[in-house]
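User: Can you predict the 3D structure for this chain?
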Amino acid sequence: MRIFQFPIALIPAFFVLTFSSCDSPSSEVSATFDANAATIAHVFADFQAEDDHFFTHFADDAYWAGTSLNAPDSIALADVAPKYRELWGKYDYTLTKEANFLPGVNPVSKETDGSVRGYFRWNITKAATDSTEQKSVNVKVYESFDFNAEGKIVWTQVYANMQAAYAALED
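Assistant: Here is the predicted structure, written as structure tokens:
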């Protein structure tokens, strides 16, 4: 009977070693997600402030998915930056609800990978002029952000009916 006492005593140690070793990669991905979500919070603050610091959160080789009507498959940061500056000159952007960042997943493995995604609500306002009243629209947006090892955004996707939003502001 003493033969069975030794292995039974090892069972708790086995479980501790098994589950603690599984925690490490998960904790690492969780820490990466937390850092990347903090970056996106800064991205949104800089975007609302219409601050060129917004672009420093992106890698030099960052791309946006072309998600609007007739858009190319991908659009380089060098092409996005002047367009955003133009839009900042015409409109004001406000995130109307606190951001709720969600973990993204690797499209192949389906496992969390530190990327960030979320559903957001933005208010876009066109200021009044001498001949027009102020106009505002609310837009629901789904966005996702992938990062490189340095914590810079390398790929982002923005899904929203932005063309309709801008058309309504210009109508």
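Confidence is low (pLDDT under 50) at residues 13-23. Residues 35 and 151 are 8 Å apart (CA to CA).
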